[in-house]
Amino acid sequence: MSTPPTNPATGPAESLDTDRLPAHEDPGPQTVTLAAVPLTRGSLPRHAARLVLLGAVGLGAALFAAGLGATWGAVLAAVAYTVVIYLWSRSVEGTRRAFDRFVTAVVSSAFLVALVPLASVVWTVVDRGLARFDTEFFSYSMRGVVGEGGGVNHAIFGTLIITALAALISVPVGMLTAIYLVEYGRGALARAITFFVDVMTGIPSIVAGLFAYALFELFYGPGVRMGFMGSVALSILMIPIVVRSTEEMLKLVPNELREASYALAVPKWRTIVKVVLPTAIAGIATGVTLAIARVIGETAPLLITVGITTSDNFDPFDGRMATLSVFSFSQYATPGIPREAYFDRAWSAALLLILIVMVLNLGARLISRLFAPKTRG
Amino acid sequence: MAKRIEVKGLDIYYDKFLAVQGVSMTIEPRSVTALIGPSGCGKSTFLRTLNRMHELVPNARVEGKVLMDNEDLYGANVDPVNVRRHIGMVFQRPNPFPTMSIYDNVVAGVRLNSKRMKRADLDALVERSLRSANLWEEVKDRLNRPGSGLSGGQQQRLCIARAIAVQPDVLLMDEPCSALDPISTQAIEDLMLELKEQYTIVIVTHNMQQAARVSDVTGFFNLRAVGEPGGLVEIDETTKIFSTPSNQATEDYISGRFG
Asked: ipTM of the predicted structure?
């Protein structure tokens, strides 16, 4: 060992300094303006935003009371808040803070507008669906039921069976496609697959249903109905979602992990199975669950391929089955007497469907938490 | 163990771009060879050709010969996976597998290659590897905790333990200390001096003091100009490179009068 003849830390630093020093001293015009900018600025009182909001809401309420309608009251309140807070802030705090408050107001209003339909749907469905949310509703089918009573036992199982079969088809196909695209795909074939997956994302669900029907008609003749055909239609809608979400998750796996595995002389396929997939599995599971939640409420393709029935039928390869979405639709579209009993069942089936989707979403969060790589033990 | 590597007239390409040109050197067994040089001169690229990691980049290829104990690593029937079984690698950023515990990380190379081993043998392998990496005392009570919960320096030593658990003949290290603090760096430098008793070690580093401290032989890579391929300028005993290098560019670089 020997010490280097010159210390690298000092030698070049000096020469650099002498080269560049004049540039730093140059008194440009910016320096002057910067010096003139004060460090402090005016600011609104602490509760200014809250007070203005209160005033705006009060104004909206007054307009509503004056008979202007809730929508116009809310819109005018939002506009009043935005204008007042912007002008006030601009006169006290300057343009940057004022614009910040303006954008905050606009973004918050947009968020509230987006929330309105959601809240409205939830409220309406819960309000009307609770009327028939009883034990009979869950334990009875519609066999022999005319008028009041009856339930969706057959439709619950129909929905679960058909969706499970759809997932069974879509998950392997979608995951393997995504693995190909991320880990192996190069050139024209990969580009073509990516393109067609994009196209598939946009297929209207009724077209997926018609495709499945046309396919099965070739083998079983016209008028065929079976649960499995519905699963095929749903999987056409589901595959692109699974591919997209899995692809995104696989891309998030750092390349360093793959290289670490290769450097340990692990073959590529084992690297994918043992390193890449376990690292991404939480996200993939979440994506799959959300894809299921997306297709479980589909109505149009199931109406064509599976139809509806009043009795239990748990064999997806033989004849019509009931599903919650189609049940809800048919109860509403072709009511008997009294109509209210049919409408109540339609709402209750819709509520049940929303609850199932919500449980799936919560399940997805649980899965991603359970499978996520742990950093602290 | 510990094999000699001879590189003869190696040209390294990324597709049509010639990145490194005409490298020839001999890397002696049971020694530390350091590769120094400015950023972008092809040190890391060259290192990655030694265990055929370079060709993982699409369209990347090499021309020339790399001989390990007179066997050409780029021969016609050579399986790159088998090459990597003999030549291990440690990366710049510590990269333990996040889904695995400390224990599983160390045996990853064995287990992922689907070798069946008895539990007792695995335990012994884990202890031996972690001891060689000077990490055993720090982690022996928490082998089942996730490897990513360790500090950066510990993670890097875990990666070294993982690399030597498969008992390679050669160990490549690509700037193994550049993400670490001086104390962890010290630990890994001490480790390198111990490991060279058994392994052939090649290290890429930006830290010239580190090269001077740990290496027996130092190679200086340089870029003639922007857009031109990089290449090996000279390689010699570390003491000679840092005192009386035969090339002016080397002297300029190590004395800091560069660029």
From this structure: 0.89
